[in-house]
């Protein structure tokens, strides 16, 4: 029996249904399996949010079941916060540092309530002050 391959559109529809944390777990497994580093995983994570018509801020505000995770203050343990931002977003070191240094800054946009709450707990555990918007 021949295996059928998924088209790019079918793969994208699967990724659209995944949470940010599920995408991160997938990317980690992909990198490990194929011994590569994803060059721009944030673009993949941002694709479902960008798919809506209109401004992304307006779409997020209309849906009460999605939240933006915003660091309002990095706190005293900035290095630990940067590490957690990298693990949540898969950003590079410089990008994560710039995001943390630029607080208040959005770490995740349009995250489902469970993902947003987990991200908030992880970041607060690292010493950051976080808001869900």
Overview of the molecule:
By secondary structure, the chain is an alpha+beta fold. The model is unreliable at 40-63 (pLDDT under 50). It starts with 7 loop residues before the first helix and ends with a strand. The chain has helices spanning 8-16, 20-34, 41-50, 56-62, 78-89, 93-101, 113-125, and strands at 67-73, 105-111, 129-132. The chain has a three-stranded antiparallel beta sheet, covered by helices on one side. The chain contains seven helices and three strands. The longest helix is centred in the first third of the chain and has 15 residues, at 20-34. Helix 5 crosses helix 6 and helix 5 (78-89) runs antiparallel to helix 7 (113-125).
Oligomeric state of the chains? single chain
**Average of pLDDT:** 76
Termini Cα gap = 50 Å
The proportion of strand residues reads 5-15%
- Poorly predicted regions are 40-63
**Largest beta-sheet details:** 3 strands, antiparallel
Q: What proportion of the residues is helical, as a percent range?
A: 55-70%
Q: Note the total helix count.
A: 7
């Amino acid at each position: 029996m021949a295996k059928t391959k998924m088209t790019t559109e079918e793969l994208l529809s699967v990724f659209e249904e995944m949470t940010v944390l599920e995408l991160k777990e997938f990317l980690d497994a992909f990198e490990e399996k194929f011994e590569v580093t994803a060059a721009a995983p944030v673009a993949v994570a941002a694709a479902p949010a960008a798919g809506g018509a209109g401004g992304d801020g307006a779409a997020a505000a209309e849906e009460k079941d999605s939240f933006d995770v915003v660091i309002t203050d990095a706190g005293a343990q900035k290095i630990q916060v940067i590490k957690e931002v990298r693990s949540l977003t898969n950003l590079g070191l410089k990008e994560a540092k710039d995001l943390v240094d630029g607080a208040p800054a959005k770490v995740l946009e349009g995250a489902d309530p469970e993902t947003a709450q987990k991200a908030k707990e992880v970041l607060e555990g690292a010493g950051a002050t976080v808001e869900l918007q």
